Amino acid sequence: MGFFSKIKEAFKKTKAAIDNKLMSIMSHGELNDEFFDDLTDILISSDLGVECAEEIVEKLRITSRKIKLRNQDDVKQALRDIMQEILENNPQPEINYPLVLLIVGVNGVGKTTTIGKLANFYKSQGKSVLLVAGDTFRAAASEQLAIWADKNNVKIVRNDDGADPASVVFDGVASAKAKNTDVVIIDTAGRLHNKANLMEELKKVSKVVSSNWENCCYQKLLVLDATTGQNAISQVEYFNEAVGIDGLIVTKLDGTAKGGVILGIAEQYTVPVVFVGTGEKIDDIDTFDAKEFVEAII
Ligand SMILES: Nc1nc2c(ncn2[C@@H]2O[C@H](COP(=O)(O)OP(=O)(O)OP(=O)(O)O)[C@@H](O)[C@H]2O)c(=O)[nH]1
Ligand SMILES: [Mg+2]
Q: Would you tell me how many other CB atoms lie within 10 Å of the CB of residue 264?
């Protein structure tokens, strides 16, 4: 299944709910206050967040004053345009090689699995890839990454469990520079975003890259689990403050109707979604496309 059909599948429930409710609130044929209020509720229930839902509805009001929205299809198209515009406000980061990706996020969001998928993604573009096992905290975390390295037939730099993550990352950077590796992907231990000491450790790890490899393209990507819905917003805030987030990877879109949170994040932050995960298999990942996403939910 291609990405588009996967994301369509993932949002089938959200889309059906929105469609049904739109149909019922439009049966009076008039775009009045009651309609706009009901629409706001529909969007909030799809996990777009209150502010984002209100902004979208306000923009729809403005549109409806300028052009006559005659029927459901007109309203849907106007909604799609508004949502796409919100998403495209956050431009994608520019990619250059050598590329270093630091993958961060709270526990269990899918960091290591995503790295396995990304290794495959870049390898299939003809890039050389090195994985760095910066999660030395959780027992067997580096083993889990080593399995992905094997599966992708790419190299890995790792150390014993309990080693200093900054030193593993230092070794990884040195190895990648020596071998002219195109893409280096660094795994990190899952950490609660509000635990200050763990965020300090992450800053240290991140600094190892920036101070030892000046001319690489360095991106810090935050992995978010779509099933956590609105909680993802505070994770963006804390991780961004610690290391400066360049992009988001939203995983587990296959298991939720809460992916509307992507819009809520786009509305609040300037961080773009760069990849989406739609399953546990090696190819269940794709680059994010605002238009496809919007068509999948409305
Ligand atoms: N359905 C689904 N499951 C996923 C996806 N991505 C990851 N998972 C599953 O989520 C679970 C956690 O994945 P990990 O990759 O170990 O997560 P992590 O963030 O590295 O976890 P820690 O290192 O413990 O913080 C695993 O069972 C994965 O198979 C996805 O896109 N869809
Ligand atoms: Mg992990």
A: 24
